Amino acid sequence: MLAFIIRRLAQSVLVMLFVALIAFVIFRYVGDPIASMVGVETRLEDQEIMRDRLGLNDPAVIQFLRFVGNAMQGEFGISYRLQQPVTELILSRLPATIELAFASAMIALVFGVVLGVFTALKPKSLLSGAVMSASLIGVSLPTFLIGIGLIYIFSVELGWLPSFGRGEVVDLGWWRTGLLTETGLKSLILPAITLSLFQLTLIMRLVRAEMLEVLRTEYIRFARARGLTQRAINFGHALKNTLVPVITITGLQLGSVIAFAIVTETVFQWPGVGSLFITSVQVVDVPVMAAYLMFIALVFVLINLVVDILYFVVDPRLRVDGGSSGK
Amino acid sequence: MTEPLLSVRGLTVEFPTRHGILTAVEDIDLDIMPGEVLGMVGESGAGKSMTGNAIIGLIEPPGRIARGEVLLKGQRIDNLPPDEMRAIRGRRIGMIFQDPLTSLNPLYRISDQLVETIRTHLPLSRDAALKRAIGLLDDVGIPDAARRIDDYPHQFSGGMRQRVVIALALCAEPDLVIADEPTTALDVSVQAQIIEVMKQLCAERGAAILLVTHDMGVIAETADRVAVMYAGRIAEIGPVRDVIKHAMHPYTAGLMGAIPRLGENLDRLSQIPGAMPRLSAIPQGCAFNPRCPRVMDRCRVDRPGLLEPVPGRRVACWLYPEEAQA
Ligand SMILES: Nc1ncnc2c1ncn2[C@@H]1O[C@H](COP(=O)(O)OP(=O)(O)O)[C@@H](O)[C@H]1O
Ligand code: SF4
Ligand SMILES: [Mg+2]
Fold first, then answer.
1. pLDDT tens digit sequence for A71-124
2. Which residue range(s) make up the domain with B188?
3. CATH number (domain holding residue B241)
4. Are B105 and A237 a contacting pair at CB < 8 A?
């Protein structure tokens, strides 16, 4: 178990280093950092002095190591556009994105698993057919269209829910949450649904396929032959085995939820890191772009790690040293 | 004579397919007495598993019991509502499948699978059920049962897993155990032990066994009577010793390898030429007629019923005319 975790940690570090290299290349070679920092009227000699002082004339390897060192301390430089430390900027936007992603993931997981199980257990019912057809639409419609459609129905036509922004937020000192106010919660509904739909259909189809597969196995037949109740078989034996592979995929999806939030945040003008990234790209705010890249990579790597460990905990076959006596 | 524990009467299982209705087993008639071991042999696809599944009510749709009855101690069980049939499975009829490697849920501890099954059928507390589970593992010959019970299936060898499966099938003390090729997937070296354990435990509990296997040796040693199946029907059924010594049906005789063919050395054992027909191509008349060394004209037209030409022995073959019935 420990060896496994150490091995996975080492892999994660390698991945992060690779992403750091890409981020560094963007950071250092897309545009000219000095030109972005200073006005055009600064004399060339002064620019040269700054260049030296910032170490931009050092060998690339040294610069890269410095970049990694700074990154590890959460240091990504100053945003060209907002003249604020990038890390501070991202951290201030993070709660909005995390709350949105978490709400979406919960919606996707709960409805995905419930609908997946339902359509697997009652494949012939009319409702299952309807759900399956709807899910096809769900995966094929682009996120922004769904978002705009929802805005049109629930904001413009019905006027029930706000179409943009985060509503009122409560500052907890280290975290600005929208979950404690009515407008905050109302504002969360449409973007969360929009962001969840794709993952929801994915999880649902996965759960359904897995569940159908599991229901055909010998151990389910043997469970039936032992006279276990339908309930114990479907929601105990079958569901547990279904969820093992689903955990992996779903966990990994959480990463994409955060990454995909870019589109949803833009459609709903949600003040998260995704919309920060989009505006940064528009004005070539390179430090923010590089930091965002590192951030998303870190999210994926961390989620991967947690998922692997979780998988390990759930499936006894992977625990070689688990149990009392392995023979 | 006592009442049979299980009676199967005219059991017919059909599968509707795109190309018409396939009859997987047809007109199965058999009785199993309390505590009796009935062997069942036949080539792969003869309908042995289908018969067992029909008895325990586990035919996979779209398959269905089209005709016939299954009676357990005189009570019909083939038409029970699903929940009543479920209560019979495991409680009054236990089942052992072929492959112990896939019969156990890999994510559940042995203890959980046993306790869950015991408590589904018997009003016991968790502790009492666990105690009973450990006792069962002891009985089926798992060393150090109290310690091994919390292990997962993958921590046991194939033979040990089949012992666990036997414990699971017996944990609510059923009157009948259907064992569908319980040793086919196992290493030859442990097959005899598994059969022995199963037979002994059932004997101690007075449980009857329907033992499906294609090992005539096992049948000869274990079973009281044997049913020989061919193309979805019973070809012959009778006491094991009689059937082995004096096979009546030409197919049984072929299985025993005892039919001398013309021009062949008499003590050379022969195989039966040809193969069992597919369900969609069962010939008219006797299903065995294209392969039968003693085929007659009538065999190609009329299908022989299962008759009793000698008391205690029944055979479906025109060689034994109805007049010979006892
Ligand atoms: N789902 C199914 N649909 C159609 N035919 C089936 C199905 N399952 C089994 N059969 C057929 O039923 C017959 C009996 O099968 P089975 O009872 O498993 O044979 P055995 O156990 O004697 O080897 C076989 O010919 C098989 O092809
Ligand atoms: S009925 Fe005819 S074909 Fe069939 S086994 Fe008897 S002799 Fe052979
Ligand atoms: Mg079979």
1. 888 887 877 777 788 888 888 888 888 888 889 988 998 999 999 999 999 888
2. 6-92+172-260+270-324
3. 3.40.50.300
4. yes
Helix (H, G, I), strand (E, B) or coil at B221: helix
Segments of chain A assigned to CATH 1.10.3720.10: 89-326
The interface predicted TM-score of the complex, written ipTM, equals 0.89
pTM attached to this predicted model? 0.81
Q: Flag if B117 and A218 touch (Cβ within 8 Å).
A: no
Question: How many domains are contained in chain B?
Answer: 1
The residues whose Cβ lies within 5 A of ligand 3, an ion, are: B 49
Confidence of residue B1 (pLDDT cuts 50, 70, 90): low
Q: Is residue B160 part of a domain?
A: no
Tell how far the Cα of B164 is from the centroid of ligand 1, in angstroms: 27
Q: pLDDT tens digits for A154-192?
A: 878 887 888 777 877 777 777 877 777 777 788 888 888
In a domain, B67, yes or no: yes
Nearest-by-Cβ selection for B102 from A217, A325, A327:
A217
Q: Angle of helix B126-139 relative to helix B158-170, nearest 10 degrees?
A: 130
In a domain, B139, yes or no: no
Where are any strands of DSSP class E within A124-228? 170-171, 176-177
> What residues form DSSP beta bridges with B234?
B229
CB < 8 Å to B95, chain A: 222, 225-226
As a CATH number, domain A89-326 is 1.10.3720.10
CB distance from B133 to chain A under 8 Å? no
Q: What rounded mean pLDDT belongs to chain B?
A: 90
Ligand 1 pocket, Cβ-based, cut-off 6 angstroms: B 15, 22, 24, 42, 44-50, 60, 63, 279
Q: What is the mean pLDDT of residues A16-34?
A: 81
Ligand 2 and B318: CB distance under 6 A: yes
* Concatenated DSSP letters of B262-313: TTS-TTS--PPPS-PPPGGGPPSSSTTTTT-TT--GGGGTSPPP-EEEETTE
Q: Is residue B165 part of a domain?
A: no
For residue A242, the CA-to-ligand 1 centroid distance in Å is: 27
